[in-house]
Amino acid sequence: xxxxxxxxxxxxxxxxxxxxxxxxxxxxxxxxxxxxxxxxxxxxxxxxxxxxxxxxxxxxxxxxxxxxxxxxxxxxxxxxxxxxxxxxxxxxxxxxxxxxxxxxxxxxxxxxxxxxxxxxxxxxxxxxxxxxxxxxxxxxxxxxxxxxxxxxxxxxxxxxxxxxxxxxxxxxxxxxxxxxxxxxxxxxxxxxxxxxxxxxxxxxxxxxxxxxxxxxxxxxxxxxxxxxxxxxxxxxxxxxxxxxxxxxxxxxxxxxxxxxxxxxxxxxxxxxxxxxxxxxxxxxxxxxxxxxxxxxxxxxxxxxxxxxxxxxxxxxxxxxxxxxxxxxxxxxxxxxxxxxxxxxxxxxxxxxxxxxxxxxxxxxxxxxxxxxxxxxxxxxxxxxxxxxxxxxxxxxxxxxxx
Length: 402
Hints:
Blueprint: H1 2-17, E1 20-26, H2 31-44, E2 48-54, H3 60-69, E3 76-80, H4 84-88, H5 98-104, E4 114-115, E5 118-119, E6 122-127, E7 129-134, H6 135-140, H7 152-163, E8 169-174, H8 180-192, H9 210-222, E9 226-229, H10 231-239, E10 243-249, H11 251-259, E11 265-268, E12 282-283, E13 285-290, H12 298-309, H13 311-320, E14 325-326, H14 335-339, H15 341-349, E15 353-354, H16 362-377, H17 383-400
Parallel strand pairs: 1-2, 1-3, 8-9, 8-10, 12-15
Antiparallel strand pairs: 3-13, 4-5, 6-13, 6-14, 7-10, 7-11
Helix pairs in contact: 8-16, 16-17
């Protein structure tokens, strides 16, 4: 018996030694979910053994940087989309393989992995923003809830009518905190109107462009009928029926179901400017799978990534964490969306969602944009003065990273 057990252990050791081992560092999956997601990979590629390490958002970035500096990078790593430029600019990531680039280049979110015209990762799981609207308030204001606003002018008209109701604001616009003032529509409106804050070559500040001036004037006008506060407060006000419209992420679906189960609301694409070239632009956040340049098993790493990119595999994670969706458009046919139609709106919104400009200067630029929004809609400063002043500040930041 002991001899048989010894033989089994030896065979197991030999088989294990013959496997290609991959280290996969990621944020999205605990041990149980990782086992569920990778079960199919183990069957399909029995010669590849994957060691999965879950990182935390509070320390993960620093751990990845430290590992790369020490020459101990994982074979596959999950990166937040705003991190890609930082790593790509230091030449520590491999470019996407040409075969994979042909498959994924046109996926929503592929631009998350782009830096200076080259692609350094694979768009895996994506999140975005859409517009929530209160059905009952629309009806009370004489609006058709089956036809939510599609354009800026339609939204402004609807917001004015809803704000005329007693004790109600037409829309909620975030202010007075980091991130949400520009993430929850201001920068999105700039993109929808054909503008941006940084030139395509990432060298010039373009905040004071004519398109952005149009956007800022509209946003300032809209704010006259808005409740302006932190995003959390706005979410509560919407749930309580005190706000007609609110731009937010898909996480709000779960929050509203739990805290305000009787709220009658819908979700639509973010309204676009009233001109032919206007688009329903939104903010794109996402998880990118990348291969560090230190990887010694690139072929095996590509097999793992291509497996994780499959819509039916990525949907396993979506079902555990509604609010992040597969980058692969084919996931729309998954029966889960039939039972969760509000999430399908977010999935559709991904088609016209954009990541922030891929410049290492972005963390400083986003702080500037927060001040832009506050000056426009809280302090009601002159649009021209605000855009000109902060354009100079953004240019200084860009010059620092040259």
